[in-house]
Amino acid sequence: MSAMAQPDDEQRLLARCRDGDTRAFQILVGRYQDRAYGLALRVLHSEPDAEEVTQDSFVRAWKALADFRGDAAFGTWLYRIVWRRALDRAAVLRARQVWEAPLESAADEGVDAGVGSGGRVDAASWKRLTESLSAPQQAVVTLFYDQDLSVKDVAHALDMPEGTVKTHLSRARAALRARYRQSHESGEPDDAV
Amino acid sequence: MRCDQLERWLDEGMPARNSAAARAHAAGCARCSGAMRAAEALEVMLAAAPPPAPAAMAMRVMERVESVERARERLAASERAWGARRLGTWAGWASALAQEPAAVVAIALAPVFLILVIAWPETAAAIAALTQDALAVWLTTASSGAMSAAAGLADAVPHGAVPFDSLLFPAMVVAVLGAFVWLGVAFRLLTSPRSRKPPRA
What we know:
The structure holds 2 protein chains of 2 kinds.
Chain A: H1 8-18, H2 22-44, H3 47-63, H4 74-95, H5 123-130, H6 135-146, H7 151-158, H8 162-185
Chain B: H1 3-11, H2 19-27, H3 30-47, H4 57-82, H5 90-98, H6 101-119, H7 121-141, H8 145-156, H9 165-191
Helix pairs in contact in B: 1-2, 1-3, 2-3, 6-7, 6-9, 7-8, 7-9
């Protein structure tokens, strides 16, 4: 979704939301919940935590609608909230040492993020694929690939310069490629594609 | 194209420019061919959608949003009842006092008396004497013993004996009025439901 164009119906929905219409906000929740949840899940690798962060983010967005100036798409603004909440949550999890708890058999498996039925990748597979990436790199990769945002929109969502986003993408691709090749050269079966 | 240039091209996400040169190089370089296959496989994996949000998550979000709205409404209703009586600021106090008729009278009388004393001291002294006499008569005619004792006390103060005689009884009037105003305000604040702090959202 481009940051330049705010669909007219979305502008009307946002205007209704600012007037206190919760039904309009429910439509926006339905429209963005999968993508917001996906971003949180990619960063946190935990479905309960991702759900909690996503819920918190939507509630914060509702409370802060008066501050939303509309200079970017609502989705981009929402992703920024999700991203910041996910980072905060990740910091809490690391502090609790839950972050280091390995998933079952994840550490020994290859980097074949099994693309399951319906073309989806589960949390464990994604973690195996991206665990070598930093949190900003994971967020950039998620927004760029999952949410199909442009570099400019990713930069706006994560409050980063565009050059930084490109750098993160470049380094993430290099790291993933190295990991993928290392995994396959060690003889892991390739059933990802 | 060299191997390092192909790696950079892959890092940039395999843009359309230089694609032909990159593929031509990969066709003749086993290492770069493997890198390109890896990059293409990763592009598929990365583009795969994450799992959808839990089915009931939207409902839970809306429950929390509705809860926020109910709290906002309660806060707004409480603030309307609380009105301008926010006594945390001077403006709040001034507003509260301005709504008390007795306070308005007392505040209006005080400068009047002050001007009277400064500009017409003889008149002020005469008024003070009359006030003292009237107070003494009122206290004397009261039936309670305490009031009689107080009347005796008033009688004990001779006219003109106190250097600030001309100020004394007007000041007493203002002070008594002021005391009643403060007592009244305090009583109403303490006993009114509005004295409870509005709930936080």
